[in-house]
Amino acid sequence: MTSAPPLPLALPAPYGSCPFTPPPAYTEAAGRAPVTRSVLPDGSACWLVTGYQEVRSVLSDARFSADARTPGFPFLSPGQRELATARPSFIRMDDPEHARLRRMVTKDFLVRRVEELRPGIQRIVDEQLDAMLAGGQPADLVRDFALPIPSLVICLMLGVPYEDHDRFQSLSRTLLDNTASHDEVSAAHVELTTFLERLAELKSRAPGDDILSRLAARPDLTPQQVASLGFLLLVTGHESTANMTAISVCALLRDPARTARLRADPARIPAAVEELLRHLTIIHLGLARAAKEDVEVGGVTVRAGEGVLCMLSTANRDPALFGDDADTLDLERDARRHMAFGFGVHQCLGQTLARVELQLILATLLRRVPTLRPAVPESELSYTERNIVYGLRELPVAW
What we know:
16 helices, 49% helix
């Protein structure tokens, strides 16, 4: 099987007719085999891992490195190479350094701590919804609701002034854009880390009750290392949840009857969030790893120095685990084994926070705005198909 011809993929692969379905090229690869030889945009080869068990195996195997400096590590663009290798955050490190840095912020995202934040998050949700409704219709659910909520929450947790949100949101969009050049990503990276370094230095002199203050007080971290940790939490802490919020609302509004059933039984919302996370997995381009030694995966041998892309979007639709209707959004499904947040030691640190935010957002929208509806035909919606995190550019709604 290792001698099979590579499957030429123009990554990011073009999307098909359904915006909620992974690109057909990924589905084609999954249909051929759970591990398929593929070609990256720069002409280098890598393995595309599309099966659920195979993705789980790679992400839990220490022989696959998350360090972007590892030989063979796959990149989808020069900009992403720059982002992953310039002052890498702990998600681009292997243990023990990865574990050492991750432990410094783990307690802030534990279930107990996030549950304590629930009332405060609910207040933010209500305030943003009040503002959106007061602004008249149609409104852009992305700009007016989905994006401000996680931005406000992560700013509060980190100690980043929310008045800087336009700045870091704009920089984040550049950093997550696969079409951004090396120079554009580098400039955005420098600007955001410089901003966070200066903030960390201020926190060291006048600390508050926030994550950056606690990190800045540690004698074993430099301001640059504090900025690196803050950079990861700030960018991922708002962008992913904002995109997941908008696309989830869009998917629900497609089927008013299904939405009405969920509104009538709000106790089902946590389970519905898990199914939405599974079905709409917003990391379409895969999690990158590189083999440090020869490893057998899905019947093929991945050699040392070869890269792999773990495709969460196809893994979460693997019929071997989720049944023959895995491509269907079924809010009654038990989807708790999905891998929308990854798997293994690098599994998303903020997953509990994201779940609580999504639960509160959807419950509040369903309860307070029962007449919410799209303000434009679905065909007119524009998606962030070239970004690391998939989502909607805007979602006009009325009520």
